[in-house]
């Protein structure tokens, strides 16, 4: 049986229009999922929408429609984004689905039977925007006298009957778990933040609400609906059939990785593991908290009107270009600033010049000079062997980086090879060998075509469309495009047919530069 790999995105609040931040989280998961599939894993990649809670109920009421109508309409925007970005998700979960109600109620039942829920009364601060409770000490008072959460969200005072989860008893167990699993939370800097939060002491968590009704009812006390974060986190179980007769749950749980933004790390790295321990379920292997994108230094927000629309971006620059840029520009755990000039400079420099030109000039030379077929290599020189050896080691480098979600460095390991191949073309000057030493020209072009084949296999998870184009030009069969076909054993054979080469990455022009 193939090894399983279960990767999840956060489920998105449907009240927002999908923007670059949402696309970013799912893109990272898509690259992981594609990489693992190519590497022989049986992958489950799940994304979806978070549709309950006060925030959504309020948005529906502002829109003048029922929450059901509202969520049906806006959930589709996120599905459209996922399809438009070429995300290879296996399941799209909506928290308003029946399968999710069943899973949440079954999960609640386990927490109750195991003695971790009790009925009480909550009085304290709540931020609807974050759907989170805050203690007085976490808040700041703004100039207008309003209390503000660390996230910048306004809070309101609420008092209502509530079920509580006994989070406070899990402090030591959580600390032990982090200690025993040093890579559970990545990157390390975020792990330290979580550790100090937990060391500071945990209070029991209110996990039900009674003052509105848009949520999942508690089976034996219908006055209450589940706290939206307990509901939302449980989606990770629902999607693999937690409450349904299915073998998927045993096979895919625990998840290999939950990818989240830094703003929602506490829910995933503290509350979620505590809930799971209380339910006596295994814990996910990793929670990775990525950074946030800003727009020319400013926080991205609807009210500032500076949202970066992924649909627009892709129309302007191309899908693979955007996918490449987002994962290349900024190390995954760090915050990053979006700018059009940086986008254009990467697309022109690294895609059009480095990668695109390499492929185009080599394949065109072969097509024109070698009767449209891979030429017969002669004896390999030291330079030939050096670049081939380097090529064959690149999968191992990339795999190491993917294992710890270092996408930018993973791309760099591919680019080290691409740059080396361009330097090799310049040094060997195959065009000059055509008359002087045609056998040597054949060998050089053979080596380059083999380098390109392997590079294209490796670039598939990041840039599926361009990689496919290159592999098509090389007429590599579909079955020979996984990482099993990476390396020497599947090296190109002489006489292998090529298709007419076509440009892979067009050069982008910067309107602002042109108009200056
Ligand atoms: N519904 C919750 C998640 C529940 S998961 C059980 C939620 N939804 S969200 O729509 O507000 O955010 C989803 C993701 O988008 C988060 O990982 C968040 O970090 C990410 N981003 C939102 N804006 C972002 C940027 N400007 N930059 C990068 N990612 C950001 O939270």
Task: Please provide a written account of the structure.
Strand 17 and strand 18 form a beta hairpin. By secondary structure, this protein is α/β, with parallel strands linked by helices. The longest helix has 30 residues. The chain has 19 helices and 19 strands. Helices cover 49% and strands 15% of the residues. Strands 1, 2, 3, 4, 10, 15 and 16 form a seven-stranded parallel beta sheet that branches. Strands 6-5-9-11 form a four-stranded antiparallel beta sheet, with no helix packed on it. A three-stranded antiparallel beta sheet has the order 12-14-13. The termini are far apart. The protein has two domains: 288 residues, HUPs (Rossmann fold), CATH 3.40.50.620; 171 residues, Isoleucyl-tRNA Synthetase, Domain 1 (Orthogonal Bundle), CATH 1.10.730. The C terminus is likely disordered. Helix 11 crosses helix 12, helix 15 runs antiparallel to helix 17 and helix 16 packs antiparallel against helix 17. Bound molecules: 5'-O-[(L-methionyl)-sulphamoyl]adenosine (MSP). The site of 5'-O-[(L-methionyl)-sulphamoyl]adenosine has 20 residues, from strand 2, helix 1, helix 7 and strand 15.
The hetero compounds bound to this protein are: 5'-O-[(L-methionyl)-sulphamoyl]adenosine
Structural class: alpha/beta
Number of strands: 19
Radius of gyration equals 26 Å
Q: Determine the CATH topology of the largest domain.
A: Rossmann fold
Q: What assembly state would you assign to the polypeptide chains in this entry?
A: single chain
Distance between the termini: 60 Å
């Amino acid at each position: 049986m193939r090894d399983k790999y279960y990767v999840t995105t956060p489920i998105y609040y449907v009240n927002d229009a999908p923007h670059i931040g949402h696309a970013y989280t799912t893109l990272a998961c898509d690259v992981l999922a594609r990489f693992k599939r190519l590497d022989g894993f049986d992958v489950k990649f799940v994304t979806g929408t978070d549709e309950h809670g006060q925030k959504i109920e309020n948005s529906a009421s502002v829109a003048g429609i029922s929450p059901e109508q509202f969520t049906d309409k806006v959930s589709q925007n996120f599905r459209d984004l996922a399809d438009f970005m070429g995300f290879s998700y296996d399941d799209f979960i909506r928290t308003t689905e029946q399968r999710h109600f069943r899973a949440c109620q079954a999960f609640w039942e386990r927490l109750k039977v195991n003695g971790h829920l009790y009925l009480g009364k909550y009085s304290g601060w709540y931020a609807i925007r974050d759907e989170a409770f805050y203690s007085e000490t976490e808040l700041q008072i703004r100039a207008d006298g309003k209390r503000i959460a660390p996230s910048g969200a306004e809070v309101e005072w609420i008092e209502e009957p509530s079920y509580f989860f006994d989070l406070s008893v899990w402090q030591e167990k959580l600390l032990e778990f982090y200690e025993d699993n040093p890579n559970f939370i990545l990157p390390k800097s975020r792990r330290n933040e979580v550790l100090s939060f937990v060391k500071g002491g945990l209070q029991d968590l209110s996990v039900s609400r009674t003052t509105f009704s848009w949520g999942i009812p508690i089976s034996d006390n219908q006055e209450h609906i589940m706290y939206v974060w307990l509901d939302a986190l449980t989606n990770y179980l629902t999607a693999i059939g937690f409450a349904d007769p299915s073998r998927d749950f045993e096979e895919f749980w625990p998840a290999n990785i939950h990818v989240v933004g830094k703003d929602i790390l506490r829910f995933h790295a503290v509350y979620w593991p505590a809930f799971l321990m209380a339910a006596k379920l295994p814990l996910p292997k990793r929670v990775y908290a990525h950074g946030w994108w800003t727009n020319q230094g400013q926080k991205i927000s609807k009210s500032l009107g500076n949202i970066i629309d992924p649909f627009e971006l892709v129309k302007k620059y191309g899908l693979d270009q955007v996918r490449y840029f987002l994962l290349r520009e900024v190390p995954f755990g760090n915050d990053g600033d979006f700018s059009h000039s940086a986008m254009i400079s990467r697309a022109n420099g690294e895609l059009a010049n480095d990668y695109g030109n390499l492929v185009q000039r080599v394949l065109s030379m072969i097509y024109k000079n070698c009767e449209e077929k891979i030429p017969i290599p002669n004896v390999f020189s030291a330079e030939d062997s050096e670049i081939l050896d380097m090529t064959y080691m690149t999968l191992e480098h990339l795999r190491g980086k993917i294992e710890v979600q270092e996408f930018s460095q993973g791309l760099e390991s591919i680019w080290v090879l691409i740059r080396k191949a361009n330097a090799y073309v310049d040094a060997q000057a195959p065009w000059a060998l055509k008359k002087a030493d045609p056998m040597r020209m054949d060998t050089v072009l053979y080596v380059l075509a083999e380098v390109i084949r392997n590079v294209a296999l490796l670039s598939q998870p990041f840039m599926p469309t361009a990689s496919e184009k290159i592999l098509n030009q090389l007429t590599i069969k579909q079955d020979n495009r996984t990482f099993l076909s990476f390396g020497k054993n599947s090296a190109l054979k002489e006489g292998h047919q090529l298709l007419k080469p076509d440009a892979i990455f067009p050069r982008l022009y910067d309107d602002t530069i042109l108009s200056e």
